[in-house]
Structure formats: structure tokens, C-alpha cells
Specification:
The structure is a homodimer.
Chain A: H1 3-10, H2 15-22, E1 26-30, E2 35-37, E3 45-51, E4 54-60, E5 63-70, E6 75-76, H3 79-84, E7 91-94, E8 98-104, H4 105-114, H5 116-141, H6 145-155, H7 159-162, H8 165-172, H9 176-186
Antiparallel strand pairs in A: 1-8, 2-7, 3-6, 3-8, 4-5, 4-7
Chain A binds a DNA duplex through helix 9.
Amino acid sequence: MNIYQILDKTHPINASSKHKFIECFEEVSFPKNHLIIRSDKVEKDIFFIKKGIARTFSNFDDSEVTIAFGEEGDTIISLKSYILNQKGYENIELLEDCELYKISTASLQNLFATDIDIANWGRKFAEQELIKAEQRFISNQLGTATERYIELLKKHPTLIQRVSLGLIASYLGITQVSLSRIRANIT
Amino acid sequence: MNIYQILDKTHPINASSKHKFIECFEEVSFPKNHLIIRSDKVEKDIFFIKKGIARTFSNFDDSEVTIAFGEEGDTIISLKSYILNQKGYENIELLEDCELYKISTASLQNLFATDIDIANWGRKFAEQELIKAEQRFISNQLGTATERYIELLKKHPTLIQRVSLGLIASYLGITQVSLSRIRANIT
DNA sequence: AGAAAAACTTAACAAATGATAAAAAACGAA
DNA sequence: TTCGTTTTTTATCATTTGTTAAGTTTTTCT
């Protein structure tokens, strides 16, 4: 998915603003297993996935939560770095070799402050992420792990082939062993 | 909390834009138990709480999830109406007699399209809600209901006095009976 | 104040999930 | 391919949370 499609997906931008915007991006590649965002750092860049898949997760004590998976067109971002310029709670690792579009938060802030079309793009971007976050929250509060797993299968059927069971389980908020048991029961 | 404080809390706006912005608000009052946002409607307005407390919840089948409580300075909003102009999944009821500031989404869209300062205010607003949503999600995935209850007590000590146990339980994702048992165990 | 309604607690049993361990299957590198 | 590693399954037992029901306390209304 190229950068034009990625930006347009969020919000249309007029041609001259879009040109200015796209000039700030750089294409980069990283290998599988690369830890691209670290929770102990204020991250200076955000990324969009051209090709590949990533996992956002958070560590506390000895346990780990998978917050999200990102596929082509999705964003790799430390929210607390991007929004508050603070150390985040997210780590993001690449689950495959990835091709990414990179832009610095400094460039973004500058574009937001000077171009109303891009400012509204930034607003739409946050709003769409917010909708996703709330839907995710509601579906995790409702129903059993079995229901959530079946819903995930329906919504992201390809994900199960690309990602290990343990990570899916951590995304669903259960242990890998529980998920294996659930799979045995629904077939 | 007045409308100046509420708007500034999110993002500073220059004086003339702020004046234009505030002119679009209207003060309204509603009694306790009023259902101000309904999930079966596209809502045309959003509200900020001057005085009082509200609860956002979602119904599916026969169960109900409390998504959030809103106190003074917080927003009463159907995200899907505001962002996508679609019917939402949220109901919002007032838990006390409330004084509110009201603005139409149409006015907001108009302000966003024409004033870069207000567009960036809208961006910051969505971003801050996003941070809250993600923190909430992470803390609900981690640890036991007991830990989440203790965390809530620390973060919002006044809430427990203003809101019934059943609603707190539904916020924590457990039943009222379970929460009562938890309270009996931690004292 | 007194009656009715709502909120909260307690208890017993059921269901879902966690923890641990061991075995089987799938995957990857030499 | 083959050996070693990782992933997945299966099983057992412990813990947490849900369900139902009954009883107590608190709040609300007249």
C-alpha cells in the first residue's frame, strides 16, 4: 500500500498540501523481529506500513499485553511520544520483514501548525484511532474469550496465518494454553 | 468548571478564535437520570460538563458495559455520531442534575474547516481521548479485578461516593456481586 | 416517621480461565 | 534430511469470576 493511498484513507487533502506532506516522508526497511518502538524512549518518528506486519505490546511486571496488530496501511506509533512527547507504554516489534514510510513528529507538528488541511488530516487520524480503540475496548469487555476469538477470525481471517497463537492469546487477554483449549472446543 | 477552562484544558486557542468558538456554545440543564445520548440515534450535538456527572454505557443482547464516567470538564459525546455521522454504540445518562455546555457537530465541522487553531484544538481533543482510551484498555487487560478496583480508588476517590456499586462493577467488567465480594476481601 | 424501592452483602454452587507440566507437532538451520 | 528449537495440544488442579437466591442496609418518596 503506497503513501498516497495511506494518507487518503484517513482524509482527503488538496494536491498542494499533499505534495508538501509527502515530501516529509522517507522510505525505510527493517528485518523481522526488529524492535522499532521502545517504551523506555521518547520516539521521534512515526511509521506507516507499506508492506509487512507489526505488533504493539506493553510490559508490566512480568506480564505482557498485546495491544494491537498492524497490517499494511496501519500506523506504527508510540502514542505518548506522538501526543505528549513523553516516554510511552508501548513496544512495537516487526513480525515480518517490513517496508515502512517514516516521518518525524517534528515535521508533523510543523505541518499541523501551518496547514489547515493537514491539521484536519491529523484530527481525522486521531479520531479514527479513537473509534478503533473504543470498539476494541467494548468487544473485550463483552462476552467470553471464545466469542472474542470467533469475532477476530471473522474480522481478520489472515491474521491467524501470519501470527503465532501465543500472540493472538495475549491480544485476546488470555493465556496461550486457554486459547488452545478454546480452539479445541469450537471445531 | 466554565467553558474557558474546559477549552483551554485541551489546547490553547488565540483570543479571536476562542471568541468565535465560544459564541457557538449554549448553556443547558438536565435533571438526574436524563438519557442525553442514545445509541439508536445520530446525535447532532456534543456537550461539556459544567457541573454534574454522567455515565457512558453500551448495551448488547441483555448485558451492559459501562465505558466511562464523566465529571466536571469532561465531554458527553457519541463518538460514532461525532466522527462518522453514524448511529453510535453509546448511551449516556446523567447521574446527577447537570449543567452543560452544548455545541452542534455542524458548528464544529464548520469551525474546523475554516480556523486552523480550532482544527488543532479538535485534533488535540481526539488525541487526548485516544490516550485515555488506550490507558484504560491496558489497565483492564492487566491484573485482576481487585487490582483494577484499587487503582480506580486511587485515581478517582470521589467517584465511589457519587456512583453506585453496580455501575462501578460494570465499569470494571465484573458483576456487582463480585465487586461486593472483592470489597469484603480487601478491608 | 413509615412504607416501598433500591442498593449492598453474604453464601453456595457452577463455569471460565490460570498455572504447571508433559507430550506431540511444526518449523528452521546446519 | 536430521537435530534442536519453538509452537501447539492435552491434561490436571487451583483460582477467579459468574449465577442465583436470600437477607440486610440504605435511600427515596409521601
